[in-house]
Structure formats: C-alpha cells, structure tokens
Amino acid sequence: MTYKSFFCLFLISLLPGLTFGQRNTNEIESKVPEYSIPDIFVNLKGQEINTIQDWVHLRRPEIVNLFEDNVYGNMPEAIDAINFTTVNENKMAMNGMATLKEVDIEVTNKTQKVTMRLILFIPNKTISPAPVFLLINHRDPENIDPTRKTKMGFWPAEEIVKRGYAAATFHVKDVSDDDKVTFSEDILSKLYPEELEKENGLRGLGAWAWGAMRAMDYFETAPEIDAEKAAVIGHSRGGKASLWTGASDPRWAITISNESGCGGAAMSRRQFGETVKIINTVFPYWFTDNFSKYNDNEALLPIDQHMLIASIAPRAVYVASASEDLWADPKGEYTSLQLGTRVHREIYNMEGNFPKEINAAGNPVHLPYAGHHIREGKHNLTPYDWNLFMDFADKHYGINSEN
C-alpha cells in the first residue's frame, strides 16, 4: 500500500469521530462561555513580571515547562551524534533558478538511529547566505515533491525561491507518523522510549517540533543558509507543531502558525469549534497524556494558548486564519495573538498594536514583531498566505523585494 493510500484510509477511519465532534461543538459566538485567563505577568509564586530579566529568567521558562507538562510533553535534549549527508544535489534545479539539496539527517541516541530527509531549494541568484522558510509537512508527500514534476500551492517552492528565500521542508512521517497506532515507531520507540511511559512524555506534535529543530541544526552548518533569518511554518496540526517549535527553540527568528486552532493558536477556554476534549478524543497521540485531564475542564488549565505565543517573545510570530474555518476559531486565534504579544509591547517595548477587532479578510496587519491575516475561504495553506508571510519576512529582515 502506498503512503497516499494509507493516508486516505486513515482519514476515512477518523470520519465517525470527526462527525461526532462537530455535532457536539459550538460555532456561535454568543455561546462562548465567560472565562478568565492566567496572567502572563504574574508567575506561579505570585511575583509580578516587569522587566526583561524577570521574563527571561522567571516567567518564560516557567511557561514553557507548564506547556511541556500539560500539553506537548517533554522535549528531549539527549543526542549522542548527529550527521548530515547530502544524498542528492542538483545545481540547476527549477530551470537553473535554484540548487536542490536532499539531506539525510541521522540522529543517534544510545546506539539507536533515526534518519529524516530534509528537502532544500537554495536560490542561485541571491547573495549568500539566504534566509530560509522551513515547512513542517503533514500532508501527502507529493505536496513537497523534490523533482517538481508535481507542484502544489501548499508549498510553492518556486515562488519562495523567486523572492530570495531558501525553501525547506521535511515530512513528519520521518519522525512520528500521523497515526494513532504507528506514531511511536520512529524517534519515540527508537531514541526516546522512556517518554512513552510518562504522563508528560513526548508525543506526536512534540516529535514534529523535534524534527524542525534538527533541520535548524543543519541550517547552522550550511554556509548557503542564514540560520539567523529562519522561519518555521506549519498549517493546521503542523501549525500547532510550529508554535511549539518556536516556543521550545529560540533559534527561530519567525514562527508562523496557519489555521492551527485548538492546541495551536486558538484560546482553549473559548470552547469554540474544536475543543480540548474533541481533539484529545480523535487525536490522542498528538499531546501528552496529561492534556486529557482538561477535557471539558479548560478552566483548570494552568496555561492557555496566548501564553504559548508569549513564550516566543521577543522573536516574531505570525498567526493566520481563514474566514470559513470556524473549526479552528479565527477569533480565538486572533485573541490569543493580541494577548500573547503584550510581552513584545510591555516587556520589550516594541512599537505597534493590533486593532481591537479582527480585521476583515484581505486586510493583513503587519507589525514589526508580529503579523496576522484572515483569508477568504476554507481550511488550507495557499500561495496567498505564503506571499503575505514573505511580505512580513521582507519587512522584518529589512529585505527590499521586487514583488
């Protein structure tokens, strides 16, 4: 059976659960319950957080640890060896516009090895080193076809290269299958089996973030790549993983979440669209076991998703939504971005603020430290989204783009 066939059968198997979840959820704004949220600027000991030192040394590590324990699981640091092998290189890819590199990243821990494949297109005409976008891809591998015989808007590599950026991606199946049965067969069973025994152990989405961090390890060794101008991006479940990547690893200059919803950018306490209970029921392998304690109990969470965005400060963060994607709660995503970026403004004194009300579709807001847009249409990652992400990156990096 091909991976594509297996993936389709997997989605079909989820339909009963998804239908059940959608039938028992709220997509009416007036029915959002009243809720209060944890204060970003008061730590667990009751100390007020007023300075950069307070944030860096007291509150931010505490918030990241709370997300590890309650949502995404531990992020293992143990690596005995990491090796990079270029298995394919084509300096005339994309009709001479780019150099293609396919790099095997081999990670060893306690004699066990796992290999993930990084696909990378580096623009040939851009002054080296090039800034880079890394996509965490959970969709069919043909979306990231390195031969470019198949081209899809989900990863418009040619357009990324034309804008002067390197286009990089990997498939999550190399680190943790997007499957509730086989998710543990890669890094979890081979490199970090002890995590599977822990209630706060690493699970699927955390493993994807781990994979993105290994790509960053490679970028730091590649002279053609400017690792200090690297953006990580994910859509939907990949967007949840990209946010956790940015929170866990301060090497990323920009973190981008596209329609990530519950467990991503959306506020859990709003209980709008997909909820904590629904996501833990349908996708129990994405999050740590502890997260299920908050099914129908969001008020007891010691964190909410605005704090995940806050933990990325002072680095840049971008949240995008789609007008018809109520399941992902566009308003909840925007609210989270507004609240989370208070750290950028109030601790780091960065200029600019988001409008009180979410902008209409087609009216992006790009601040020096954060961006937001809502696109007309359904749940997807499109060239329209990518162009706005690159516009934001151009401004953030001070790049003059001809497009």
Automatic annotation (TrEMBL):
Question: What Pfam families is this protein classified in?
Answer: GCE_fung
Q: Which GO terms describe its molecular function?
A: carboxylic ester hydrolase activity
UniProt domain 4-O-methyl-glucuronoyl methylesterase-like: residue ranges = 105-345
For this UniProt record, the keywords arranged alphabetically read as follows: Hydrolase, Serine esterase, Signal
Specify the superkingdom. Bacteria
Q: Which SUPFAM superfamilies match?
A: alpha/beta-Hydrolases
Cite the InterPro entries for this sequence. AB_hydrolase_fold (IPR029058), GCE-like_dom (IPR054579)
Is Signal one of the keywords UniProt gives this record? yes
Task: Give the protein name, as stated in the record.
Answer: Acetylxylan esterase
| Organism per entry | Cyclobacterium qasimii
